[in-house]
Amino acid sequence: MALDKLPNTILRDLKARAQKLEPMVKIGKSGLTDAFFRSLDEVFAHHELVKVKFADLKDQKKELTPVLVEKSQSHLIMQVGNVVVLYRKKPAPAAPEVDKAAD
Questions:
Q1: Residue 86 burial (CB count, 10 A)
Q2: Which among 77, 84, 41, 43 has a CA at the least distance from the CA of 60?
Q3: What integer best gives the mean pLDDT of the chain?
Q4: Tell me, which fold does domain 8-88 have in CATH?
Q5: CA 22 to mean position of chain CA atoms
Q6: Where are the alpha helices (DSSP H) in 1-103?
Q7: CB neighbour list of residue 85: distance below 8 Å, 6 or more residues apart
């Protein structure tokens, strides 16, 4: 599932915001496991912009980054050295359900 391309104005803003971020998730020896994606989803639940560091597998980062982007359903904002910045818009909060039995 390919995501729509972000407009340049939004991309510039996200790159500027990413400069101040510290890596929140690290890719270790295990690589892109289900556990890694669960922890990444947890971070995305609280943050739209996430910096991911390749602590290991640095020589495979070019091959792993597209997989990371696709499986996390995020946008690649930038890749510098052993760090990638991903963006995934938070879903709009669901409207609270009205309990009709209480009427």
A1: 28
A2: 84
A3: 88
A4: Translation Initiation Factor IF3 (3.30.110)
A5: 13
A6: 8-18, 34-46, 61-72
A7: 14, 15, 18, 21, 49, 50, 51, 52, 76, 77, 78, 79
Say which residue, 94 or 36, is predicted with more confidence.
36
State how far the alpha carbon of 17 is from the alpha carbons of 11, 26, 27, 80, 102, in Å: 10, 19, 22, 15, 46
The position carrying tokens 């391309």 is 5
**SS3 state at 6:** coil
Question: What is the Cα–Cα distance from 25 to 52, expressed in whole angstroms?
Answer: 5
Tokens linked to 57: 């597998």
Query: Are 50 and 85 a contacting pair, CB within 8 Å?
Result: yes
pTM over 0.70: yes
Note the pLDDT tens digit of each residue in 43-81.
Answer: 999 999 999 999 988 899 999 999 999 999 999 999 999
Domain boundaries, the chain: 8-88
| Residues written for the chain | 103
CB neighbourhood size of 37 (10 A) = 14
